Each structure stands twice: as structure tokens, then as C-alpha cells.
Task: inverse folding
């Protein structure tokens, strides 16, 4: 089990917990390990290389084997990436010419000819019935033999693996970081937290656990161990029941509650009774998940435990036998009566809800007095509002001036997105400025003393992670809204999937848009060599896994935006396949190499989500002709089958516009607040060496930082969000 935790630290922090063992001469094996890592775009830090060199070889070898497997999976090099066209991108034919060749080969096939002739007589031809279409005609080794070796370039990615501390210290540090996160974790983060919580249950615990979902994961471990539960709402108990049933604690998916052992039933009912006894008004929260409460009641049997009468009221409310007016209904009644000041006063008892409703309250105010009542309530409760909500308000205000022609982008909790025109009335400028000043002042007050802050310029445009939902924690992935420079002559997307049971066809495509977000063209299985690029060919069945690639020379792209898309054409969706991931590579024009070269991979992320069309990011050309990646992490619902780029031109253009034109809060904003607090902020090498304690903000930890330096990278950027 310790090895699983060790590799979790490697994957999330690029740190290898210090291996232990008998001293010896492991230098030769450590150098071989480093050379193997370089083939995947990784290298050992000087400290880690020296540490491994001082261990006996038999202690170095298993660590090297495990770690190499982990980093290869991080970049997508744990599978074999074949291509339909063996010498892609050089040998991709014209689309119609290729289809004609497939038909000719089918006509020459005695077994396939009768069916093909029948289709042709009907005037409709299904490409999937052609023997040579959609499946590899050569093996992986044969494909590799058709390519020259990759020429190393200075721009190839090299990710440093650093020496960590003692194993238990590293496990505890990662657990505390995840458990105490002020930002919602993605599903992979909750899985990792669940694993670590069981191991760290008896060790140090975070001072606070701000997020309900994290609390539910930890409560499941505490309940199993008979420890005191952390509960203060009825929904906390419902989330805990989901966790104990092996279901998601997000309450966004259907759940089948398990029959629980009597001690667990007693713990849940006792906790529920204490919550309601302490605050009967919390019964109103039952309405949000009424059906789930009914199902849970069937498993907990509250009628068998008369000692907890308050817990029984929860299920009575769910069944409609007991009234419990909701907080929202009371607010809506006041708003309907035009009592804006009364609504603001009531919402002030729940500061987060007040701040989320500020826009609506300000616009609903009939006169200056009502507006002042709203603003006064906001100022009064500001110290009680979470930092994430303050940042969300600040970002909302940044995008509320109407400077972008009224485009709104909506994103639900599951990552599905849509865009529409903004029909809201404008918020008065003086109100925006007053609320922005209020948020800035409160956030500055909460920022900790940071010593000297050194910032890698590439980090300045990384968005603050106000939510980790639907954002995978994989190699090179940045929070939604982040912008990062694209430096290379050749841009290559890749996608891999492996079906579970049914024949499954996932398709990679690229939609090209002009500066007005109108379609210029696309690359996919219907356009293999369009818009100056090449598609590696359509694979339609993946029992052993399959890959597709798109190759673009950026200098030849005549478009303002390039939008990579992954479509579920048929079969299993992103949640059902055994494995599915997307990424991109950057190369110099003369590097050659196989279609997939791990050290040229800049980003790789798992594809998971509810829609049948995934849009991980968009590449945008700036006014100087350079390119930047803008991170989206969104899904379109798509069609039940036969999704392709041509069918989603308008909706994709609207989404891209909404994402590109929206201004996120970035590290630049936060370092500005630090500078306002008198903190010395050094960007790059602008001002020489720092003095005293250092906080470093960058895409990766550099060599040479002192052991006491605090390092913030995209992997733990959530730690900068004030509570």
C-alpha cells in the first residue's frame, strides 16, 4: 500500500519520497534510471540522483521501476500509439482518394463484394462496412520502423523529479493539502483523498475542512473507525451515507444506498439527531434531496430508534408529513413583496448566499436606499465570507461591465457548458467599483505574510482555481481560464481510448475559427488533409486501444482559433470506456520522430464527463502572431451518435467566444494584492536575488531553491486561495 501512496506523491507533486535502504553503490543504476526517465521527458534532480546513488542497487531498482511506470502513464506513454496511416503525417492521402481506394479494395475482396454492390445500388455507402476502413493494417513495430528517430531539441519538455522527505511526512503533507483545500476537488482528487484519509486517520488532521465533500470522505473513515463525526448540516449526513455506500459524495449522481451495519446506522442517526436538535431550521435543507432521503430512510430504519426523535423529523419532512419552510422560499417571498432590504438582511445570516445573490439584489433595488441596504449588508458580513466566494464575486464583477457584447458562458457542476446572449440589465459602475474594492480589501487582509515572492512570468496568466471540478489533475493541465504560451513550429494533438465491452468509435477533430468565431474549416475523418494539416486516420473499434492524431504547422494555419475536439461517434461514452485521454505535443519542424514522442508531450489529461463532445482547450493567435492555449475543460451534450465537427460549428464557436472573452482572476491579480500589502514581488530575474524567506510561484519547482522555500505550482495553487 505504501508504494501506491509513494506514486500518488510522484504524480501530484513531482516529488519522490526519500527511498530508504542499506547504503551501497547505486550510482550506475541511478544513472540508468535517469536516462530512462529522459526518454519520457523527466529527469532526476541533483539531490535525488545523489540520494539514490548512495543506496545499494537492490533498493534502487524497485523504486526506479515503479516511478518510471508512473511518469510514463502521466504522459500517456504506458500504451502503444499506432496510426492508421503508417507514415503519418507524410503519407496521408486526399480524403476522397482514400475512400475510393477502400472501395476498390472491397470490390476486389470476394467476401465483401456482394454487400458493397448492394449498398451501391441503393445509393448509400457505409464506410464502416469496408474491410480496410477503420482498423490498423499494420502492427505498432512496423509503424515505428517507418519513422526516423526523434532529434533532440532544446525546447523538448524536461520535468524534474525532486527528492522528497520521509515517506510518512510526504503522505501526511499531501493528505493535509487535499483535506484542507478551500477549493472543490475533482473526482480524481476525492479518490486520492479517500485513499490517504484511511492511511492518515490516526495522524495530524487539518485545522479546518472547509468543503463538505472533503468532510464526507473523511467522515467515512472516521465512522468506520468509530471516531467522532464532523457534522453540522443534515446534508453532511447524506453525503456521508453516499460515501459509506461507495457512491460519489458530490450528490450529482444517482446512488443506491447499501444496507449498513447497525453501528454505522446508529452513528448516522445520532449525528442527524444532534444536527436537527441544535438547529431545527436545518430541516429545510431536506427538500433539496427529498428522494434520496426517502431511500436512505429505508436503509437506516429510524423508527427502530425512538431515542433520536429529531432524526425521525428529517424523514418525515422528506415524506411530506412535516412542513419545513426553506430558506430560499423565505427569501423569494421578500423579493416578491419588493422588500429588498429585508431579503438582504435575511441572506446576511448566510453570508455566502448573500454574496452569490448580490447582482440580483442590486438590480432588484427600486431606489438608492434599498441599494445601500444591500451594500451595507455585504460590507457587514464580508469577514465571514469564504475566500473562494470573494474571489468568485471579484471575477464576476470583472466580467460584468458589458465590454464583450453581452456573451454569457454557463457551466454546470458536471462540466457541461452552453453560451447565450446576456439579457441582464447593466450593473451601475459605481456599484461594481464599490463591491470590487470591498472584495479586494477583505482578500488583502487575509493574505499571509509571504516573505519575498518570486514569480515565474509563465505563471502570471494561470487562473486561480476557484473549483477543481471537471478539471483533471494530470500532466501540464492548468485551471479553467488559464492562458499559456505555445512555443513550437508543429502542434500535434493526440487521443487514445480503449473500450470496455461494446464496439466504440471516438473521433479526434480540430475546428478552425476566424476572429469572429466563424468556421474556416476542420480536420477530421471527413477531411484528412484540410486547412494545412493532416489527420492520422479513423479507427472505429478499440478492444485493445486505439489512437488518433492531428498535425498542424502553426505558421501555415489561416485562422484565429484552433479548437481540438473529441467526439463520441458511437458506442461507450467517456464515463463508460476503460480508458480515454487527450493531449498535445509541440515540436520543431525538423525533429522527425514517431507520431507519439513522450518528451514532446506538453499536456495529457483523462477524458471524463457527461457529454459526448469534449473541448479541453482552445489555441488562440494573438495580435503579434503568437499562439496561446486557453484552457476550457468543458463538454457539449452532443448527439446520441454520429457526432462530428461539422455538426457543432455554431455551438462550439459560441462556447469559444464565451471562454476566450471571459476574464478570469489569475496569479497576476493575487500577486498585485500581495504587492499592495508591501510584500516584495520579483517577476523573473527583474530585481536580483531575494532576501529572507521565499515563496516561489511557477509552473514547476526549479533546482537550487532552499529547503525552507515555499513552492506553489499548478498542482497546489489551491493553497493560495484564502479561506
Result:
Amino acid at each position: 500500500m505504501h508504494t501506491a501512496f509513494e506514486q500518488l506523491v510522484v504524480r501530484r507533486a513531482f516529488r519522490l519520497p526519500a527511498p530508504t535502504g542499506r547504503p551501497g553503490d547505486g550510482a550506475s543504476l541511478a544513472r540508468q534510471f535517469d536516462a530512462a526517465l529522459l526518454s519520457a521527458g523527466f529527469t532526476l534532480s541533483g539531490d535525488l540522483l545523489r540520494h539514490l546513488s548512495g543506496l545499494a542497487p537492490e533498493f534502487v531498482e524497485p523504486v526506479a521501476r515503479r516511478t518510471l511506470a508512473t511518469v510514463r502513464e502521466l504522459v500517456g506513454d504506458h500504451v502503444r500509439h499506432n496510426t492508421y496511416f503508417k507514415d503519418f503525417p507524410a503519407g496521408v492521402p486526399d480524403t476522397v482518394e482514400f475512400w475510393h481506394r477502400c472501395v476498390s479494395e472491397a470490390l476486389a475482396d470476394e467476401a465483401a463484394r456482394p454487400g458493397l454492390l448492394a449498398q451501391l445500388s441503393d445509393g448509400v455507402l457505409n464506410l464502416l462496412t469496408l474491410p480496410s476502413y477503420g482498423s490498423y493494417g499494420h502492427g505498432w513495430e512496423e509503424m515505428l520502423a517507418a519513422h526516423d528517430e526523434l532529434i533532440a531539441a532544446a525546447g523538448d519538455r524536461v520535468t524534474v523529479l525532486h527528492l522528497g522527505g520521509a515517506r510518512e511526512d510526504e503522505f501526511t503533507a499531501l493528505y493535509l493539502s487535499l483535506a484542507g483545500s478551500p477549493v472543490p476537488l475533482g473526482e480524481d482528487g476525492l479518490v486520492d483523498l479517500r485513499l490517504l484519509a484511511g492511511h492518515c486517520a490516526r495522524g495530524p488532521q487539518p485545522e479546518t475542512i472547509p468543503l463538505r465533500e472533503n468532510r464526507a470522505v473523511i467522515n467515512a473513515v472516521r465512522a468506520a473507525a468509530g471516531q467522532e463525526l464532523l457534522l453540522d448540516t443534515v446534508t453532511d449526513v447524506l453525503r456521508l451515507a453516499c460515501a459509506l455506500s461507495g457512491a460519489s459524495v458530490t450528490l450529482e449522481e444517482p446512488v443506491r444506498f447499501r444496507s449498513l451495519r447497525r453501528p454505522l446506522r446508529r452513528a448516522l442517526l445520532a449525528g442527524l439527531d444532534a444536527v436537527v436538535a441544535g438547529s431545527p431550521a436545518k430541516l429545510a435543507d431536506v427538500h433539496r434531496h427529498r428522494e434520496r432521503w426517502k431511500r436512505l430512510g429505508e436503509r437506516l430504519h429510524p423508527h427502530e430508534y425512538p431515542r433520536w426523535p429529531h432524526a425521525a423529523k428529517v424523514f418525515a419532512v422528506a415524506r411530506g408529513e412535516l412542513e419545513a419552510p426553506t430558506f430560499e422560499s423565505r427569501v423569494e417571498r421578500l423579493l416578491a413583496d419588493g422588500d429588498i432590504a429585508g431579503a438582504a438582511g435575511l441572506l446576511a445570516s448566510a453570508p455566502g448566499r448573500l454574496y452569490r445573490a448580490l447582482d440580483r439584489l442590486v438590480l432588484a433595488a427600486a431606489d438608492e436606499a434599498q441599494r445601500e441596504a444591500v451594500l451595507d449588508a455585504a460590507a457587514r458580513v464580508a469577514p465571514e465570507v469564504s475566500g473562494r466566494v470573494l474571489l468568485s464575486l471579484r471575477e464576476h464583477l470583472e466580467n460584468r461591465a458589458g465590454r464583450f457584447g453581452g456573451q454569457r458562458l454557463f457551466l454546470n457542476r458536471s462540466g457541461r457548458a452552453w453560451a447565450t446572449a446576456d439579457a441582464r440589465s447593466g450593473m451601475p459602475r459605481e456599484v461594481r467599483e464599490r463591491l470590487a474594492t470591498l472584495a479586494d480589501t477583505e482578500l488583502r487582509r487575509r493574505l499571509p505574510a509571504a516573505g519575498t515572492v518570486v514569480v515565474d512570468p509563465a505563471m502570471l496568466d494561470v487562473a486561480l482555481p476557484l473549483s477543481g471540478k471537471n478539471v483533471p489533475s494530470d500532466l501540464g493541465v492548468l485551471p479553467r481560464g488559464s492562458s499559456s504560451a505555445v512555443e513550437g513550429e508543429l502542434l500535434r494533438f493526440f487521443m487514445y481510448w480503449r473500450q470496455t465491452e461494446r464496439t466504440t468509435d471516438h473521433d479526434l477533430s480540430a475546428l478552425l475559427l476566424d476572429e469572429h468565431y466563424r468556421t474556416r474549416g476542420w480536420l477530421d475523418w471527413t477531411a484528412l488533409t484540410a486547412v494545412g494539416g493532416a489527420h492520422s486516420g479513423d479507427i472505429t473499434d478499440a478492444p485493445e486501444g486505439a489512437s488518433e492524431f492531428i498535425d498542424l504547422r502553426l505558421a501555415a494555419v489561416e485562422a484565429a482559433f484552433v479548437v481540438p475536439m473529441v467526439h463520441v461517434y458511437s458506442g461507450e461514452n467517456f464515463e463508460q470506456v476503460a480508458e480515454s485521454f487527450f493531449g498535445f505535443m509541440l515540436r520543431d519542424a525538423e525533429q522527425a520522430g514517431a507520431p507519439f514522442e513522450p518528451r514532446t508531450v506538453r499536456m495529457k489529461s483523462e477524458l471524463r464527463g457527461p457529454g459526448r463532445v469534449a473541448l479541453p482547450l482552445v489555441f488562440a493567435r494573438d495580435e503579434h502572431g503568437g499562439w496561446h492555449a486557453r484552457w476550457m475543460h468543458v463538454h457539449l451534450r452532443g448527439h446520441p451518435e454520429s457526432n462530428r465537427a461539422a455538426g457543432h460549428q455554431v455551438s462550439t464557436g459560441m462556447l469559444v467566444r464565451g471562454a476566450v472573452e471571459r476574464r478570469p482572476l489569475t496569479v497576476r491579480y493575487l500577486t498585485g494584492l500581495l504587492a499592495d500589502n508591501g510584500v516584495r514581488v520579483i517577476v523573473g530575474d527583474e530585481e536580483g536575488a531575494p532576501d529572507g524567506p521565499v515563496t516561489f510561484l511557477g509552473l514547476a519547482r526549479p533546482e537550487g531553491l532552499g529547503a525552507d522555500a515555499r513552492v506553489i505550482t499548478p498542482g497546489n495553487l489551491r493553497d493560495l486561495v484564502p479561506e
